[in-house]
């Protein structure tokens, strides 16, 4: 029996354990945080049943992918680039509008598909293949940098039109991969210089043109519900669209985050700072051990408690201990993937494993920083914990690819020799 289970769950056992614990935390916390969904649907078990089914589907995807030798992932590079560009263009034209932004493509049976999730993994795959193919003794060939940017810029641009935080996250991960791939520092310096100018120009445009007519933009980001469910003041912000319809959202999130003026409790406008305010209340009332699983109070008030702000609910219910435990799991995942990458004999699986784990961990850092007030609201879910459809399954696919590297990548000779001696 144990042998049969071992044949299914191949690959690094530590990563499997981290995967398991994150999924268990997800089921418990999503069940607790979905009170608004159960109230709206009048179905107590519906939301959590759907979430468990999504995790199980993701688990199947992970198992299927880990059984594919990592060298075959190279064959998917060109098809994945074509699919990413096609679907990213499609979602801008015919996608479903979520909170004033086209992010998902509707599918039959009430399902939806988020192209940006596929595009992120595609860009990591492309970067890993280019860096590995153009690696020299002194580092990456100078042309590798140019080839990566030629593909990264259009993909990030198409994502950033409607989902700026995801485009920014992707840029950060690819820059980290460029460092790991030993791209010449002169090229990296020029890239940072250009990025600094572009960011300054972009912030100037956003802060100048991003005014909302008819009301202030709320700091909530609806990733799984439609704009029709938003309150009146949010609909006003959405209707103020135009060419720069996302500028209002970005401007208000930046301004609110940078506003550090002390406000008395009785003067605090909770209606205009709904997510941040209730997230702060959830964290402040948690103490060391929390209120216990299922005992959250703020889940009934905090929009997207089951998604973008689930870490605040984790802290409220599990306290500082639970918050640290979640961070520890992501640290272990990063460390273990780094160990696997360092033992790979070939560059491609090493770069792929590091790129995918950075994609998961950097997104987790974004989400947790937002929940505790260290970053402006971005709308990034917490990987493998937040409730989601496409994102959950794709993140499981990333885990499957990392496990495939741990199982099928050739190890360095000295590593094999140590294992033989043991």
Account of the protein in words:
A 3-stranded antiparallel beta sheet has the order 1-2-3, with helices on one face. With 422 residues, the protein is mainly alpha-helical. The two termini are 26 Å apart. The chain contains 16 helices and 5 strands. 64% of the residues lie in helices and 4% in strands.
In short:
This protein is mostly helical and 422 residues long. It is built from 16 helices and five strands. The strands form two sheets. A three-stranded antiparallel β-sheet has the order 1-2-3, covered by helices on one side.
Topology of this protein?
Elements: H1 2-8, H2 13-33, H3 35-41, H4 46-66, H5 77-94, E1 96-98, E2 101-106, E3 112-113, H6 115-133, E4 135-136, E5 139-140, H7 142-160, H8 164-180, H9 185-209, H10 232-239, H11 247-258, H12 274-284, H13 310-343, H14 347-371, H15 390-408, H16 413-421
Antiparallel strand pairs: 1-2, 2-3, 4-5
Helix pairs in contact: 2-4, 2-13, 4-15, 5-6, 5-7, 6-7, 6-8, 6-14, 7-8, 8-14, 9-11, 12-13, 13-14, 14-15
Features of this protein?
422 residues; 3-stranded antiparallel beta sheet; mainly alpha; two-stranded antiparallel sheet; 16 helices
Q: Please bin the fraction of helical residues.
A: 55-70%
- The total count of strands amounts to 5
The coarse overall form would be globular
Strand order of the largest sheet: 1-2-3
User: What is the strand content?
Assistant: under 5%
Question: What is the rounded distance between the termini?
Answer: 26 Å
| Low-pLDDT residue intervals, each spanning 5 or more residues | 212-243
Overall SS class = mainly alpha
Question: What do the pLDDT scores average to?
Answer: 80
SSE pattern, N- to C-terminal: HHHHHEEEHEEHHHHHHHHHH
The radius of gyration is 22 Å
* Largest β sheet strand count, sense and barrel closure: 3 strands, antiparallel
Number of helices: 16
């Amino acid at each position: 029996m144990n042998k049969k289970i071992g044949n299914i769950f191949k690959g690094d056992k530590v990563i499997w354990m981290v995967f398991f614990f994150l999924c268990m935390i997800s089921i418990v916390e999503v069940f607790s945080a979905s009170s608004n969904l159960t109230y709206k649907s009048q179905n107590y078990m519906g939301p959590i049943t759907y979430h468990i089914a999504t995790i199980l589907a993701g688990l199947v995807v992970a198992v299927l992918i880990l059984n594919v030798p990592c060298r075959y992932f190279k064959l998917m590079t060109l098809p994945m680039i074509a699919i990413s560009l096609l679907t990213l263009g499609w979602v801008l034209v015919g996608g479903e509008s979520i909170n004033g932004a086209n992010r998902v493509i509707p599918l039959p049976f009430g399902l939806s598909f988020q192209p940006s999730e596929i595009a992120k993994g595609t860009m990591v795959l492309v970067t890993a293949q280019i860096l590995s193919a153009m690696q020299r003794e002194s580092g990456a060939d100078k042309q590798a940098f140019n080839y990566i940017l030629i593909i990264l810029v259009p993909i990030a641009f198409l994502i950033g039109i409607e989902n700026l935080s995801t485009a920014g996250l992707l840029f950060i991960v690819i820059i980290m991969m460029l460092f790991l791939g030993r791209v010449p520092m002169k090229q990296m310096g020029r890239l940072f210089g250009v990025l600094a100018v572009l960011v300054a120009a972009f912030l100037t445009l956003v802060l100048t043109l991003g005014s909302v007519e008819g009301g202030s933009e709320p700091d909530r980001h609806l990733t799984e519900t439609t704009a029709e469910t938003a309150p009146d003041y949010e609909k006003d912000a959405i209707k103020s669209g135009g060419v720069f319809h996302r500028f209002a959202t970005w401007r208000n999130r930046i301004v609110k985050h940078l506003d550090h003026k002390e406000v008395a409790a009785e003067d605090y406008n909770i209606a205009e700072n709904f997510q941040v305010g209730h997230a702060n209340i959830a964290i402040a009332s948690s103490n060391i051990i929390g209120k216990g699983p299922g005992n959250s109070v703020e889940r009934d008030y905090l929009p997207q408690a089951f998604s973008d702000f689930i870490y605040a609910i984790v802290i409220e219910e599990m306290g500082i201990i639970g918050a640290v435990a979640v961070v520890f799991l992501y640290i272990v995942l990063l460390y273990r993937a780094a160990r696997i990458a360092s033992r790979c004999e070939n560059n491609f699986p090493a770069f792929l494993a590091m790129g995918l784990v950075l994609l998961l961990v950097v997104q987790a850092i974004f989400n947790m920083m937002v929940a505790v007030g260290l970053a402006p609201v971005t709308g990034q879910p917490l990987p493998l914990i937040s409730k989601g459809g496409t994102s959950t399954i794709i993140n499981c696919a990333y885990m499957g690819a990392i496990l495939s590297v741990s199982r099928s990548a050739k190890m360095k000779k000295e590593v094999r020799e140590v294992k033989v001696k043991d």
